[in-house]
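This part of the workshop introduces the protein records we will be handling. Getting from the letters to the tokens is the skill we practise here. An example says more than a description, so a record of this kind follows:
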Amino acid sequence: MKTTIENGIHESTPKRLSTRMALLAALTLAGPAAAVADVVSDWNATAESILATTPVAPGTYYALVHLAIYDAVNAIDGKHTAYAIHPASPTAGASQEAAAISAAYTILSRLFPQRAEALDAAYTSSLADIAEGPATDLGVAVGQEVATGLLEQRKNDGRYEPGSYTFSYEPGDYQSTPPGFPNPILPALGNVRPFAIPRGSFFRADGPPDLTSVKYTAEFREVKKMGSATSTARTPEQTEIAKFYLEGPATFWTRNYRDFIEGKELSTSDAARLYAMLSTAFADASIACWDSKYYFNAWRPVTAIQNADTDSNPGTGGDPSWQPLTVTPPHPEYPSAHACNTSAMNEVLGEFYGTREISMTLTSTVPGSMPRHFNNLEEQNQEVIEARILAGFHFRSANVAGIDLGRRVGRYIAARFFRPVE
């Protein structure tokens, strides 16, 4: 029997809504407050406000926040396997909500001391919604201990390594892209210690097709035709799809999955688990994707099409003036990061609910974008494949490989972590 999960929004109580509004005001977030599922969603929004202005790879930081919340809440709830930390602090009678608040606050305040004023205000406002007393005090102690232990375990995990990159100039090798020709970003991300998978190279992709192959020729022609800034073959709807996904994956998925989760009225325990699964999938898929990107070091379509006379393939037919629909992201082409992240998160979401038939409406902050509705998770995966071709960013193989890589990461996480206690 097929089960369908619908994306709904429930009414917030005035007390919960006032807390979210206070949190948003403290962090100077614009826009109306959304319906609130629990404190886990509150602190996901708080993390987003901090990470949106931080020039880092945000996936690892979301994972730290939500893994700390998960282990703190789960230490009290005890229904699932711990991720990493078994606190010594007493958990009997402790408040799960206070533990979640304390864990998230401890992670963020220690990683971003320059945002202490805003975080302190959010912490005070968040705790004000919980009755004072021993349960809250116990929960705060659990959250602090778990977060401190997790930060200690993640010291020297490679997050702060700048990495280096040396350009090579053989046909097919990545080159900086117009108009600004920046250096490629995050060359060391693939070497960061993952949160769940053994190492970044564990699910390394198979590699792009050979430049002289029939497959490459067909994919070259496809993106040249459909991803051009001046394409007459791309329909207005296809252009809208391409632009919809121009928002950065971290902010795009953080907001959209928070909107989804807030509509589910999950318990604190279930919300903590789902956010932990999603953020771990995003982080590890990013690390694995970047490992493959810099291992294969493949050129972007804009470079390939403008320099097709160097690829030894008479069937490609270059155009020195060709430009993609919009500015190409500054990192190697294969595989697609959007595809890696999308399928990894969808995989663990499907595992959490026990079905891929999950209905969801997504939004984008790209100007002029309209919400897009999906009847199941595979529809999302497939649209991302098409969107990155239509934007002129990727060949089809890079998107398909990204979906496959992300799916394998998500399955690995779902099979080995956050499992029910027997």
User: Anything to note?
Assistant: Confidence is low (pLDDT under 50) at residues 1-37.
